[in-house]
Write a structure and sequence with these properties.
- The complex is a heterotrimer of chains A (about 600), B (about 300) and C (about 350).
- Chain A folds into three domains: about 140 residues, 3-Layer(aba) Sandwich (D-Maltodextrin-Binding Protein, domain 2); about 170 residues, Dipeptide-binding Protein, Domain 1 (Dipeptide-binding Protein, domain 1); about 240 residues, Dipeptide-binding Protein, domain 3, CATH 3.10.105.10.
- In chain A, about 30% of the residues lie in helices and about 20% in strands.
- In chain A, the strands form seven sheets. In chain A, strands 8-9-10-1-11 form a five-stranded mixed beta sheet, with helices on one face. In chain A, strands 4-5-7-6 form a four-stranded antiparallel beta sheet. Chain A has a three-stranded antiparallel beta sheet with strand order 12-19-14, with no helix packed on it.
- In chain A, helix 9 runs antiparallel to helix 11.
- Chain A is globular.
- In chain B, helix 6 packs across helix 7.
- Chain B starts with a helix and ends in a 7-residue tail after the last helix.
- Chain B is built from eleven helices and no strands.
- Chain B has about 300 residues and is mainly α.
- With about 350 residues, chain C is an all-alpha fold.
- Chain C has a domain of about 200 residues: Orthogonal Bundle (MetI-like fold), CATH 1.10.3720.
- The longest helix of chain C is centred in the middle third of the chain and has 38 residues.
- The relative contact order of chain C is 0.15.
- The chains are: A alpha+beta (about 600), B mainly alpha (about 300), C mainly alpha (about 350).
- Chains in contact: A-B, A-C, B-C.
- At the A-C interface, strand 10, helix 8, helix 14 and strand 17 of A face helix 2, helix 3, strand 2, helix 7 and helix 8 of C.
């Protein structure tokens, strides 16, 4: 009996195997079929954080917000410096602290309401009122209120910005919306901020009707934390109706968002700009690369997110539309900590005795330059970035003002590195050597590679130069970078982290790296008053030619001071099936698939 | 109770358990002679870190330089597999040692003294057993920070309850035996009774369970490394090497099985290592007590 | 002992277990500094500026007992907190991801048990003959296979070679649209059952195709265990007195095995099945991760990796409750199957 069963199983398996071999052999450049005509299906990693434009600060949220909502003005095609009208038909800079926008008429929201200037006023006031911790509202707060946050106002714990200031910051004047700045703020940057998803325009009546902040009931002039506007300040994510509901004026409207699975949008038949190219926009969240790859090759997805290390697998596929060398607005850098916490475990003995490094080891310029000259940039670019990047000399990236691909930057020069290190600390470095530990966030192979390249290069100069490499979880690294004691900064001698642009202005990149209160420079112990002044001058300079010169000078200062080993600006790629047309690249577009409204499928 | 000689003879007679012993022996050889079989290149500081031949991402097929090929990031698979045997033994033996030790101590206390001590210890084991082992281990590793050391701690924390329970059960049984009563009657202290009489007899079921569990421990450690919660990248650990292969299971369109060597080889090592211990453990189980087959 | 009071007593014991589990997990989180825990909510360096306000908002720097107490208070009010990794309340996350895992467990458990019982019985009945040895080797091999490796190999074969036959995730995109459209009622969110209830053939076939690889992966490893268990259990009951009597009476061997030996041999298998189901329900973590079959195991794993404390705690509560319940059901079943066992007593 058992024997019979065995035999029949074997036979069955054999038949199945024969049948299967017949179909889907998986060989040759198989054509990709056109599926889901009229729809756009994308697969990417992660998930939307929140559909509330005032909350979302991540790429996935921004992408969907971009499809659902409209902003006041847009960039013109591929340009990052010229703007075109969107929901605002025109704008006028009144003076250095006031700018007004004329609001378009005849635009309707998905749920039926009409766009009015009051909606615009509400959208921005609401953002200031909500001001969630860790959110993008600081970009609105800073010009309009003069501070990053509405809480801990003027340094007083528990104090809030006066509601009247919020009211005054945005006003309606007939068809116009007027923004009143609390400080003198560069207008170009303000315009750039408005083009991003956090500048999305909401329908005031609909929001209020669905439980969002009501300026009448929870007045800005009521200071009571329960009955006034403060009741809506810093809410929990799930408390906001807009977290998973949406009503915008954009080309697509929200159909369903299955958290962690997918989000589906439907065509807005009454879109004010005209016909919408896709009936449905579906974004699926798939973390496994293999699954995404198969979806793309089977035509089940029109676009998938391809991590850099796997682009090689798709380069030979004929039926794909491949875009490459797209300069992304981000960079990466190895920072020198010039005021290491003496209690750190990573500096060995804590003395310049060959068994460690002293906390001020990197204050000697010769050390920094020695490291920067020893690093093998070519290998890094070729192996960690697979050649898909541009090496940088300073934080400025392409196409920012002041960026010059031919400007000075470090190249590997082992002889010069040796000379520099021989001079360091009066010759003690080369004589006694050093030992410390360098960290990278576990799982991040390019960063690990950078550590290994540096360690090997220095070791090859002198076997007394010993760097160990330690993986650390990302939360621990963040904790160790952004920390300080009474007298020192964090415990990491070197740390690697990158900047991703909020808006494409040179100041957004220079300040974090070079200003003494910059997000990175502060935690390195870098920055000094004359440099701060120069940065601030450049920030507010209105004459473009002068500005370019200033940023070029700042670039040279960075190279000269060498506060970090600048790595590279990544060059991105996009992979679509050949049926998708119309993609163009603008680094400010929130979504990876690009300007979807201007694309099509056939 | 069987004498060690009798047990050895039974093992050798049974072809399956003999196979198990041979497999384990081969791995012992690999582990002990790792520096000779897969020597680290000159100047390489930590032998447990697999040497890299360059930095490029794409795995390379087996060649004269790299017998088993290289993984993503150009780590030598052969080196990793051989030294991985050392890692596997380290993890397995350390975790089992700690687990059995804790299990013996707590199990003995619970079994011998009974009463409230027993209740408390049993409730604690209940708590640990009520939670899926892998998730608990993941939470512990994520909290402390991934590394081989943390993996061993996490696995010990997860594993000890079963041993405590087992030993407690055996002690409960043996407690009533005559010679124990006699010993106590003669005035021997509790500790002495436990050590000299109760424990030696309780050892055998523990051995059985331990030999069966070593395989499970190695599998769990490999699973943790596979999820990125164990050995750091480039460490000579089989699970970690399989993690490297995770995104290369489907090659380019015209050659989908191109990177088979990165996927199959480390997994085979895990399979055979665990298989050896399971064969041995299965034999132990049959030898010592057929009734123990029910767990 | 009366059934009702027994059940009540067992359920009451659930409470200290729940306390213990959650307290332990909470204790683990205290290894993390408030800053490290705050980074769960941070995606870019710009946000690090806001760390103090994030820490204050989520109360991450308050003493351990206050944080635990706050959490407990919320739980009693029915609020299990917010699961950051999947952007929804914890309670909803559990209900949301449970169907996928249940679907896996429901498909795998019958296969595991039936195949295991079948081969285990055969092996016991033909002890020391080829089929016994064959079963034993297969079982030990299956037991030694790393789940993730098996999954990877299956993917290698069925994704690379036979493209599209057994795809990842739960459904094809087109089927997702069908399932979420107005004409389809999602009674259980278990796609196979819903498809049957909605009399929708294409969805059923599609769901089954996506289930094949994950189910095969889980089953292979666990079948081995049941096989061996059934075998030894059968051997033991075959050696019992009443079997000899039955044989002496001249009953056919087949009847002896199927009617008498098997029923008693099933007792330990019932116990194990209970644990098996609970274990599967609690986390086919590796399988779900590899095949992007997002169930509760996947969710728990993501939460553990990213230290999303409310999620991990919610999962802990759920699993502990499930475990105790399964134990209870198994013990009651015992009394039905084995008349020698009384509620609350020890099994011989």
């Amino acid at each position: 009996m058992a024997k019979k069963l065995m035999l029949s199983i074997v036979a069955l398996v054999g038949i199945i195997a024969l049948v299967l071999t017949g179909c889907g052999g998986g060989n040759g450049g198989e054509p990709i079929p056109l599926k889901n005509p009229g729809d756009f299906v994308a697969q990417t990693i992660g998930d939307v954080d929140s559909l509330d434009p005032a909350w979302g600060y991540d790429t996935a949220s921004g992408e969907q917000t971009d499809y659902i909502y409209d902003v006041l003005l847009d960039y013109n095609g591929e340009s990052t410096t010229t703007f075109i009208a969107n929901l605002a038909t025109e704008w006028t800079v009144v003076d250095t602290t006031q700018i007004k926008f004329k609001i378009r008429t005849g635009v309707t929201f998905h749920e039926g309401g009409n766009l009015t200037p009051e909606d615009v006023e509400y959208s921005f006031e609401r953002m200031m009122v909500q001001d969630r911790g860790g959110g993008p509202a600081w970009m609105i707060n800073l010009p309009l209120l003069g501070a990053y946050r509405t809480r801990n106002w003027e340094g007083v714990p528990g104090a809030y910005v006066p509601g009247a200031m919020i009211d005054n910051a945005v006003q309606v004047d007939g068809d116009w919306v007027v923004f009143n700045f609390a400080i003198e703020y560069p207008m170009t940057q303000w315009l750039q901020i408005l083009t991003q998803p956090w500048g999305s325009i909401l329908d005031k009546q609909w929001c209020v009707a669905n439980g969002e902040w009501d300026p009448v009931v929870y007045s800005l002039y009521d200071d009571d934390p329960e009955t006034g506007w403060k009741a809506y300040n810093a809410p929990a994510k799930g408390d906001s109706y807009l977290y998973n509901h949406a009503n915008g004026t954009g080309p697509w409207k929200l159909d369903i968002w299955e958290a962690g699975e997918y989000i589906r949008l439907l065509k807005n038949e009454a879109y004010w700009k005209g016909s919408v190219p896709f009936n449905k926009v579906v974004t699926q969240f798939v973390d496994e690369w293999t699954s995404r790859k198969l979806a793309l090759l089977n035509g089940d997805a029109d676009y998938v997110y391809v991590p850099r290390m796997y682009i090689g697998e798709l380069l030979d596929v004929a039926d794909l539309e491949k875009k490459s060398e797209l300069p992304e607005l981000s960079n990466d850098c190895i920072f020198f900590n010039m005021n290491i916490d003496p209690d750190s475990d990573l500096i060995g003995s804590g003395l310049l005795d060959g068994n460690g490094i002293p906390p001020d080891f990197f204050t000697d310029e010769n050390v920094r330059k020695g490291f920067a000259l020893a690093f093998d940039y070519d290998t890094y670019l070729a192996d960690a970035m697979l050649g898909e990047g541009t090496m940088l000399g300073s934080p400025l990236v392409d196409p920012l003002l002041g960026y010059d691909p031919l400007a000075a930057k470090y190249e590997q020069d082992l002889a010069a590195a040796n000379t520099s290190l021989n001079l360091a600390w009066g010759g003690n470095v080369s004589a006694l050597g050093f030992k410390f530990t360098m960290v990278y966030n576990s799982g991040n192979i390019p960063r690990k590679t950078a550590c290994e390249i540096l360690a090997e290069a220095l070791y090859s100069l002198n076997p007394l130069y010993q760097i160990s490499i330690l993986p650390m979880s990302w939360p621990t690294i963040l904790d160790n970078i952004f920390t300080e004691t009474e007298t020192s900064k964090g415990p990491l001698p070197l740390f690697q982290i990158g900047w991703i642009a909020d808006y494409p202005d040179s100041d957004n990149f220079i300040t974090p790296f070079m200003h003494s209160y910059g997000d990175f420079a502060y935690y390195q112990g870098y920055g000094y008053p004359s440099l701060d002044t120069k940065i601030e001058t450049a920030r507010y300079e209105t004459n473009e030619a002068t500005r370019i010169t200033l940023y070029e000078e700042l670039h040279d200062i960075y190279v000269d001071d060498c506060p970090g080993i600048m790595l590279c600006q990544p060059l991105g790629r996009r992979f679509f099936t050949k049926y998708i047309h119309g993609f163009y690249f603008n680094p400010t577009i929130p979504g990876q698939p690009g300007p979807l409204y201007y694309m099509s499928k056939s | 109770m069987t004498g060690w000689r009798l047990m050895a003879r039974q093992i050798v007679r049974n072809p399956l358990s003999l196979a198990g012993v041979v497999i384990i022996f081969i791995f012992i050889i690999l582990a002990v002679f790792a520096p000779l079989i897969a020597p680290a290149p000159a100047g390489h500081r930590d032998p447990y870190l697999i040497p890299r031949d360059g930095f490029s991402i794409t795995p390379q097929p087996p060649s004269s330089e790299h017998i088993f090929g290289t993984t993503q990031g150009q780590y030598d698979i052969f080196y990793g597999c051989i030294w991985g045997a050392r890692t596997a033994f380290r993890v397995a033996l350390l975790v089992m040692a700690i687990t059995i030790l804790i299990g013996i101590v707590l199990g003995s206390l619970a079994g011998y003294f009974g009463g409230i001590i027993d209740e408390i210890i049993m409730r604690i084991t209940d708590i640990f057993l009520a939670f899926p082992a892998l998730i608990l281990a993941m939470a512990i590793v994520a909290a402390i920070g991934p590394s081989m050391k943390t993996v061993m701690i996490a696995l010990s924390v997860v594993w000890w309850p079963s041993y405590a329970r087992l030993i407690r059960g055996d002690i409960l049984q043996l407690r009533e035996e005559d010679y124990v009563e006699a010993s106590r009657g003669l005035g021997a202290s509790s500790g002495r009774v436990i050590l000299r009489h109760v424990l030696p007899n309780a050892i055998y079921p523990t051995l059985v369970m331990a030999s069966l569990d070593i395989g499970a421990v190695v599998l769990s450690a490999a699973a943790l490394s596979f999820l990125g919660l164990g050995a750091p990248e480039g460490y000579a650990d089989w699970g970690q090497m399989t993690e490297f292969a995770r995104n290369w299971i489907v090659g380019p369109q015209d050659d989908p099985l191109k990177y088979w060597y990165a996927v199959i080889t480390p997994g085979l090592f895990i399979l055979f290592f665990v298989l050896g211990w399971n064969l041995l453990g299965d034999a132990f189980r049959d030898i010592f007590d057929p009734k123990l087959a029910r767990r | 002992m009366e059934l009702r009071s027994y059940i009540i007593r067992r359920l009451l014991l659930l409470i200290p277990v729940l306390f213990g589990v959650t307290l332990f997990i909470f204790g683990i989180t205290m290894f993390f500094s408030p800053t490290q825990r705050a980074t769960l909510y941070v995606t870019s360096p710009q946000q690090m500026r806001d760390l103090p306000s994030i820490i204050a908002q989520y109360g991450l720097d308050r003493p351990f007992y206050i944080q635990y107490g706050t959490w407990l208070g919320q739980v009693f009010r029915g609020n299990l907190g917010w699961s950051t990794v999947v952007s929804m309340p914890v309670g909803r996350a559990i209900l949301h991801y449970l169907p996928a895992t249940l679907e896996l467990a429901m498909c795998a458990t019958p296969i595991i048990i039936l195949v295991g019982i079948f081969f285990g019985t055969k092996a016991a009945a033909h002890k020391d003959r080829p089929i016994d040895h064959g079963t034993r080797i297969a079982a030990i091999l299956g037991w030694s296979l790393p789940t993730f490796w098996l999954g990877l190999i299956l993917m290698m074969i069925f994704y690379g070679y036979f493209r599209g036959l057994f795809p990842p995730m739960r459904l094809d995109p087109q089927m997702e649209v069908v399932v979420t459209s107005a004409g389809f009622v999602r009674y259980t969110r278990i796609n196979t059952i819903d498809a049957i209830l909605n009399l929708n053939g294409p969805v059923l076939v599609n769901a089954l195709r996506h289930l094949v690889l994950p189910v095969v992966t889980i089953s292979t490893v666990n079948v081995a265990f049941i096989m061996r268990l059934m075998r030894s259990s059968m051997l033991e009951s075959l050696g019992k007195g009443y079997i000899l009597t039955a044989r002496a009476k001249g009953l056919q061997e087949k009847v002896v095995i199927s009617k008498h030996a098997r029923r008693n041999a099933l007792i330990p298998v019932i116990t194990v099945s209970g644990y098996l189901f609970a274990a599967l329900a609690g986390g086919a973590v590796i399988t779900e991760t590899i095949f992007s079959f997002k169930g509760i195991g996947w969710w728990a794993a993501q939460s553990a990796i990213r230290m999303d404390i409310p999620s991990v705690l919610g999962f802990a509560l759920f699993m502990a409750a499930l475990f105790v319940l399964v134990n209870l059901v198994v013990d009651i079943l015992y009394t039905r199957v084995d008349p020698r066992v009384r509620l609350g007593g020890e099994v011989q």
